[in-house]
Amino acid sequence: MSPEMVSPIGIFDSGVGGLSVLRAIRALMPGEDLIYFGDQAHVPYGMRTIDQIRDFSEEITKHLLKQQAKMIVVACNTASAVALKYLRSRFPDVPFVGMEPAVKPAAETTRSRKVGVLATPATFQGELYASVVERFAKNVKLFPETCPGLVTQIEKGELDSQTTNAILNKALEPLLKEGIDTIVLGCTHYPFVIPQIKRIAGSRVRVIDPAPAIARRVSSLLDSNRLRNQSDRIGRMRFITSGDPVGMESALNKLLGINAAVDSIPWITNAEHNETSLLTKNDAISTS
Is position 147 annotated as part of the catalytic site? Predict the structure, then answer.
């Protein structure tokens, strides 16, 4: 096998939400090595500016490429909406897979022609979402909801708390009154509360988790770029956070049921040059 085949797949998100994508990739391709970066120092990205999200995404991509990543999965809807096109222009030789709200399958299967979309404000305001709506939702009415506070609850591991359920009830109640029969999850954090969403929405409402489709896209790109790991062994997983490693270790246990050590790589700020960079053991990579 070539060195590229045995290199890891790099995955990043603003926090632990992208673990839902990692889970799907792991299930479909257990032989692939995976490196996951959760930028918990800056979560949630939905509250950040476009320039900030692009800077964070570029810096994390550089770090993952230094770890020999053969592909980058932007497992964050917000980062995909505002930074994916930019990343592809900055790193033209790197295969990227980003998140796209699953409006197409929702539009193809809805009976009521009414679909709820749960996502962050940055996702709804991005060109990617507008493009998806233009292409696939011409004959469907979409009802967007931003679910303020839900990402924070999931980051804390509070999947079924009173506060989490109150947030979901407030978001879903107006959608259900409108007669939606399908819910699109436009944030990678949200699949972790699918049981709570289904409990509120009822069995007649379909909830679309985008992670399996993203995993299939990763698999297809590995084959088309001849990057699939052909080894029979189970792939290794490495986890990195820019925040509290103990907190991410707890999240890994709660969300995925695994016990794993987490490396911590903090951000540093150069106030004189208005730059941020990731501080590694060997160097710090600057961004402007």
Answer: no
